[in-house]
């Protein structure tokens, strides 16, 4: 073979290999944490800031890491919390506002912390030494609204609190729900572009929408989409740009979609459509930039994408190309504006990133 053609062939092979390698999921942070003695165990909460820094909550190691776009991991908070008697215990969820403040829902210490870009840690709701605002117990989820208001769900207190940049902490929904339908164990939280807050009740098998004016409306109950398509123990909620609300039923093994006209449809069922086998419990749902739905299943230790035709495609499972286990107990799920997908392995003590090209339909 002429030297020029051989060089061209080698270049093409290298390019193909590089693209294939780039499409493979990569570990962005593992149990070793920052490599300086601060370990990561049981990652659960994930968040991104405008600069592309990834924030990871160690639920079992009681700390928070920042991973830069270049891959450098830095511990930014540990079990000491604010250092004033409010410990950081079992951080479960994270959110970042436009100013770069990181909000941490610490379940076991019943506290919502704020970490400023300069690293100052303070209590903004709940607390151990002195409680800030209404009662907050076992905070499970936190989101930031379009106006900068921060919402946190109290799993144990059965409520959602709003933290305004200017005003006091207030309760936007509590145990009474909408006054007719109660809310118990809020286990998922989402917000749309208009500022409507969505929360699911794991014990009451329902979902609510809270408008910016404070109107509370139950949009989904245990009947779900009808017989054999009900909702049991909802564990996550997401909303797309068109206003469709997606709710993952952990114990019912399905994902339901509530359209703006309040019609309900089961978009992912509990059984494999090909062989009829039971699938694992869906624990997280998220919407990709192109509007497609991603579902993390803890029981299957897998991540699935719902294609435009309704079929599901597995993006990631527990074993890698080398046959070694890379994912256990998929919990935290985050999709970047670029389309990159981040998935936290609560049991494998790591966070994986799936490149956008590999997460596209038909990729």
Class derived from helix and strand content: mainly beta
The number of helical elements comes to 2
Based on CA atoms alone, the radius of gyration comes out at: 21 Å
Output mean pLDDT: 89
Q: Which word captures the global form?
A: globular
Relative strand content = 35-45%
Strand line-up in the sheet with most strands? 1-28-27-26
Primary descriptors:
mainly beta, 7% helix, 363 residues, 4-stranded antiparallel β-sheet, globular
What do you see in this structure?
It is a single chain. This protein is mainly beta and 363 residues long. The chain is built from 2 helices and 28 strands. The protein has helices spanning 3-23, 356-359, and strands spanning 26-29, 43-48, 54-58, 63-67, 73-77, 91-96, 102-106, 111-115, 121-126, 139-144, 150-154, 159-163, 169-173, 186-191, 197-201, 206-210, 216-220, 234-239, 245-249, 254-258, 264-268, 282-287, 293-297, 302-306, 312-316, 330-335, 341-345, 350-354. The strands form 7 sheets. A 4-stranded antiparallel beta sheet has the order 1-28-27-26. The chain has a 4-stranded antiparallel beta sheet with strand order 2-3-4-5, with no helix packed on it. A hairpin with a 4-residue loop joins strand 27 and strand 28. The radius of gyration is 21 Å and the shape is globular. The protein starts with a helix and ends with a helix. Mean pLDDT is 89; it is low at 1-22.
